[in-house]
Amino acid sequence: MASPQSITVDQVRLILNEVIDTLESPDYAPKLDEAKEAAGNEMLKMMQIVFPMVVQIEMETIKRHGFINSREGIVQFTQIVREMERADNEVARLHAQIRAHYLPPVSISSTVDTSL
């Protein structure tokens, strides 16, 4: 276990992979799918129902790697990930994979309706 201040890219990758493995595990995947179904296409409900589940899994995972099991710990870890993803494509890919669980893909229309 490394202290959060001296965490390496490989350790961040490991933590992100552990979070993904947990999210996609037989124990959590059905619960997450049920929560997503309950939220539907409503972003507010997604953030109220699904996002806290993902954050809880992240908190449980980072705690095992020396981070504080609190809001402060998840904020610290997220800041480290955001810094590292700029320089490491794998960290960026893994982080995006986690975000995809609570942020649905957004399709942006190339046509703009100006008939208002």
UniProtKB/TrEMBL annotation:
A Pfam cross-reference name: P_C10
Stored InterPro entries: P_C10
Organism domain of life: Eukaryota
Record carries keyword Cytoplasm: yes
Assigned GO CC terms: cytoplasm
Matching PANTHER family: PROTEIN C10
Name this protein carries in UniProt: Protein C10
Species classification: Eukaryota, Metazoa, Ecdysozoa, Arthropoda, Hexapoda
